[in-house]
Amino acid sequence: MSETARVSLTLNGEPRTVEIGAGRTLLDTLRWELDLTGTKECCAAGECGACTVYLDGEAVNSCLVLAAEADGREVTTIEGLGSGGRLSRLQEAFLETGAIQCGFCIPGMVVAADALLRETPRPTLDEVLQGLSGNLCRCGGYTRICAAVLRAAGAADVTG
Amino acid sequence: MAPRRGDSRADSRADLAATVGRPPAASAGTVVGRSLPRREGPAKLTGAARYTDDLIVPGAWFGFTLRSTEAHARLLGLELDPAFDWSRVVVVTAAEIPGENVVHLMADDQPALVADVIRHVAEPVALVAAADPATARAARDAIRLRTEPLPAILDPLASERAFARYEIGRGDVEAGLAAADLVVEGTYRVGYQEQLYLEPQAMIAVPGEDRGVTVHGSLQCPYYVHAALARALGLAGEQVVVIQEETGGGFGGKEEYPSMLAIHASLLALRAGRPVRIVYDRHEDVAATTKRHPAVVTHRTGVTRDGRLVAQDVDVVMDAGAYATLSPVVLSRGAIHAAGPYACPNVRIRARTMATNTPPNGAFRGFGAPQTEFAAETQVNRVAEALGVSPLELRRRWAYRPGDVTPTGQVLRESVGAGVVLERVAEAADYEPVRARTAEARMARATRPAGARTDRLDGRTAHGIGLALAWHGAGFTGAGERFLASVAGVERSADGQVLVYTDSTEIGQGARTVLSQLVAEALGVPAEAVEVAPGDTSVVPNSGPTVASRTTMVVGGLLIRAAERLRADVEARTGAPFATSYRTDAAQAGRVRFDEQFEGYPGIVWDDATHRGDAYPAYSWAAAVAEVDVDLDTGEVRVGSVVAADEIGRVVNPVLAAGQVEGGTLQAVGYATIEELQARDGRYLNDRLATYLVPTAVDAPRIEAILLEEPFAGAPHRAKGLGELPMDVGAPAVIDAIHDATGAWIAELPATPERVLAALEAREGRR
Predict the structure, then answer these.
(1) Of A89, B160, B262, B291, which has the fewest beta carbons less than 10 angstroms from its beta carbon?
(2) Percent share of chain B, pLDDT over 70
(3) What average pLDDT score do residues B533-559 get?
(4) How many CB pairs under 8 A join A and B?
(5) Is A124 in the B-facing interface, judged by CB distances under 8 Å?
(6) A160 vs chain B: nearest CA distance in angstroms?
């Protein structure tokens, strides 16, 4: 922790700068330096997807990304989805289909699903299953999460 | 319309999007029976929900645990590296525990920290805390344990020390077996299963005035933690406050273990004089916390030539691990369910749970029943094969009906759903027609010309369909609910709010939503008008632990009665319906609260010493049909679909209930196919998420949940338990489907490719 790095990034649309230990991950930086605790730590090894965030528009496991790599780039977390305190269409669909149980996978799952729909606005069920296969849920059967994504895909405005 | 058999996953897209989220058919009241959205759903969707590690606690230090590395050893001492700067950390050992060095639960045999003898490889020996995690970890690594090894017992069958033994039975088993035309014998093994709640164990302790402590944690049972803290810290009850934060899954894994964690965090916090947080990483969580008990179950089943069940002799051995934890009651539930839901005049169930030098096993959804019901159901399917009868037909003859008597001597008076779940699942899954087709395909493969071994290299898969039936007693076993004497209350506050008081926790299963629906219905108000008080022991009463599929049935029943008293009280004063008068009444009458205490279900009698009587006030019933494809070259099993029918008395929230069935079914499919925790020398080998595999979205079968209602008159809302039930029935259905596909029986879970190939080889060797 002796070496520190200065990282400037655009976080959920706002410019932010932090001084951090050079080895600090983006996940730890979000949670411990920037107080954005919506992004969850579950395995810290890139196995579960609970820490999924957008980095320059691409969904990544933030536990596998050094914060320094985010310097000069755009990061969007679960707190940055939706708008004006309203749930996004995708988030609404999660609520309507009963896709949420304990909720710990949900922030990462929602970001991953949002990314999937940006890439493939009208996915098949197989594309949804493949697209979310890096995000573990232990409470449900994935059926309702898939249904939520498909339902959101049926609406024109996915993320708004 | 649910996705139909034969639909490809892609084809069922439209169906899925349209139907999921719509309630399955169920009896709907004005509030109860409706799929109201999860109350804390929006907070969970936006990242606003606060789980324990999300709490920002200024000045809190980070705690870590030094664990043993030996399965059995005498602890001679701890050596602190003199080169390390110990002024920056606090260290706690057994000698510094102010109260009793025990994690209070049942037997009180487990120390919070090892004092003299190490009994398993992950046992906590010392605690350290520092202002930052790196310093605390470095301090932990600078402590060396001096030990003297002792011989370790790792095999429960070689252990001579039992934490509990039971013998349950009726009739004369030996005479029954002697009179049988056919006796089928079988031995079944199940391994560990890890709960793998996605939120790891987490606890923050904050020292208070007068040596007291407040803990915030991820937990199922606030008052378990409360009692354990008071005991270990030597505090009076009022000096201890336990607050449940948003909890990222439990499945039993946060039933008893959080007590250990709360003691550890509190010891450090009191020592440091500042808040201390302990949050396990995934590796520590898997390596050190409780698992589902491994078990060996042996059956001898006697039947007549015409297919009557005349005798069942069952022997159950569970591996408890190093300390008793909940093993006596896990074993009890496992034993009571071990003969399956079948009427039999002569039954003997002998069960024991043995001490080994391995990390203690504990609660996990199903609590002993998934182990014994896997064995019982596979045994019944093997008897069906031996008799040349369809597994469905055999169960139609044998399954409990009202008036039948269980092995403990309980007469099943009402709400017996075995028949209805069987018929509905068979119909929905098209069971017999599909089974006829798989039988034809199997016959075609078997009648290929000699040298058929080469057909293993064709790269073909074999399709199979399997059936299982299960029962699950709702609530604590035997006299447990009477001993708990749970309390729950409903308040109309002075400012006109309706508040529910219970320590039943929301852990993802939907308790917060379901309990508020029950209270709203009883009061005649919309569910949104009812708030649930925070899970804080200084605020809510002890409603018993959030376990044993008891929350909706037992605590829900108490809350309805409390709400009915509140409603009558307000209406007597106002002469108007509660809904229109409770707010204005608040101005005059102020705060009004009614608590209800559990006093027992009518006519339920149990003798703990003999394990005879009414083991549970009611049972829930499930049947499942699984379809699998088995790769005959690699032994890989792909579960394509599971249709599950669950009869639970009354469905309070259909979408939440279906979610329980779907999630429990997927955990059962994982148990049956891929979830295997290997151990050597008392240590888990694959104790990371990269190596302990659980089902992902692409592994998951299509799951169809059918909810059925056979009302339970003992509860005011007619509801029974659900949470654990789906876990009992999925695995044997999958194993039966593998047999249907290949003709090979898998007698040990999970059905890994290695075990499937070995079973195929053994079968071919026989031919």
Answers:
(1) B160
(2) 95
(3) 97
(4) 197
(5) yes
(6) 14
Task: Indicate yes or no: CB of B21 within 8 angstroms of CB of A106.
Answer: no
What is the model's pLDDT at position B766? 64
Domain range summary for chain A, segments of one domain joined by +: 4-80, 89-152
For residue B276, the model assigns a pLDDT of 98
Inter-chain touch B41–A94, beta carbons under 8 Å: yes
Q: Reply yes or no on whether the pLDDT at B17 is more than 50.
A: no
Chain B hits for A137, Cβ within 8 Å: 198, 697
Give percent helix, percent strand, percent coil of chain A, each to the nearest 5.
Answer: 35, 20, 45
**Domain A4-80 in CATH: superfamily?**
Beta-grasp domain (3.10.20.30)
Measured in degrees and rounded to the nearest 5, phi and psi for residue B432 equal -65, -45
A63 interfacial to chain B (CB closer than 8 Å)? no
Mean pLDDT estimate for chain B? 94
**What was the pLDDT predicted at A1?**
45
Q: B588 by DSSP, 3-state: which?
A: helix
Domain range enclosing B466 = 12-23+291-476+610-766
- B302 close to B174: Cβ distance less than 8 angstroms: no
Hey, is the C-beta of A43 within 8 angstroms of any chain B C-beta?
yes
Q: Is there a contact between B198 and A132 if contact means CB atoms under 8 Å apart?
A: no
In the CATH hierarchy, which top-level class contains the domain A89-152? mainly alpha
**Region class of B443: left (phi > 0), else alpha (psi between -120 and 50), else beta:** alpha
CA atoms of A113 and B599, how far apart (whole Å): 48
The tally of domains found in chain B comes to 3
Nearest to B17 among A104, A136, A151 (CB): A151
Selected residue of A47, A51, A143, A158 to mutate for chain B interface (largest B Cβ count, 10 A): A143
